[in-house]
Specification:
single chain, about 90 residues, mainly alpha, 3 helices, about 0% strand
Length: about 90
């Protein structure tokens, strides 16, 4: 019974983390749109977002862990994980 409760707790934690990710994405999308309406170009926004994200990751996890994380992004990009509105066939 304990294993079942632990699995349910893990699944609930995963759902909560996914919901937080979705909320965070929506917040960033709103901020991005606001900046665009203020006349800030996409390239400047992207560079600022990446710089801010990398700075936060290094601050919280260190340079090596951040570098290891960055290495995983290439595979995600190649897989299309960052493509908006992609269709799955």
């Amino acid at each position: 019974m304990t294993a079942m409760l632990e699995q349910q707790a893990t699944e609930l934690d995963e759902l909560i983390q996914e919901e937080k990710r979705l909320v965070a994405i929506e917040i960033f999308k709103e901020a991005w749109l606001t900046a665009k309406t203020e006349g800030i170009e996409t390239e400047i926004l992207a560079e600022s977002a990446v710089y801010t994200a990398m700075s936060e990751l290094v601050s919280h996890f260190g340079e090596q862990n951040t570098a290891d994380f960055i290495k995983t992004l290439d595979k995600q990009l190649a897989h299309g994980d960052f493509t908006a509105n992609k269709t799955i066939q």
